[in-house]
Amino acid sequence: MSLVLPLTLSALLAASPPVEGLWEGPVACPPQASAPEQTPTPFPLTVFITQGAEGLEGFMGSPRQGLSAQLKTLSVEENTLRLTANVPHHYQAELAGPIEGSTWKATLTQGPVSCTAELQREPDVQLQKLPIPPTFQTRPAWSWLSIGEMIFRHYGVLGAGDPPGFPTQCTIVRTLFAGTPRFECNSNCNFCKSMAGGSTYEVLGMLTDFPRKRITASRQPPRLFAAATPVLDAGEVRRELEQGNPVLVGLNPGAPSAVTEPGLSSFFPPLHLALITGSLKTQATTWYLVNDPYPFPQLSANPYVQNQGIPLMGLRSGAPVPLAYWLREDTLKVKLRWKESFLLRAEPRAAPPSPPSP
Fold it and tell me: Per CATH, the architecture of 21-29+41-123 is what?
């Protein structure tokens, strides 16, 4: 399933103004009927538009609740740019208006409310994104196995014949621990609920051991190498992505607030894993595309959404749920408490020698 829904293009003429890039600016709304004498404070709005594999795509984000979502439709008619975004659990948002040079004077409509926006376009943005579809963890403590599944598919350790989700995550854990005394998953992976892998040693072992244990006479998957490292800066993440390598990050989104105090954070190691698969660099900041396998049951309790992350929606058991998130770099580090990183490299195995000629 595609991470971002394709955007419909009702008309995109050669003479239309350029729309790709990052649009940012203030939004001003009229006073509420209950307090006509109080003028609301303007709030910032960000809109990102880029050319995707199936047309234009992007997202809308704001600190104001109920305005962060991936774009659904986009159209350009002469000098008027119009787009919509389905915001989870809120009215659909529509932003439309004329473009004059690098300025977009638009009306933001959401339900009964209409506001005015004046956004400026920043065309010089650097986008790097890897084609790594997200997957869900199928047991409460299996974020490490779900991340492993995404990584193994990306590097070709897993193939099309390995079904997504629980069957493959079960295969990973049983391959890693088969033969271990008192291994609870030997006969049935439904008994594996407690198979958490929170330590650096266990994560590194999974990333390197599973490909090795998959080797057979007819199957030669690439070898993977992994190294634990501290939190990376934006340039280091971008270089990894440019080389085709995602960045595995250890997070602690549910840690108590005390970990923000100096000297205490080291007592709370990473409790959850996620995967950086994309980066968007602007003049002011860097955004990361993060695949997080945990199926947060409620958006109101989702730490990404609580911290202005932009959810990219998909379907799980027929219900719309977040699959991944665009999130600012400082938010991932401070609010989601990025604690540790894992760097990945793949070494393809040499083809088996040809049989001697008769």
Answer: Beta Barrel (2.40)
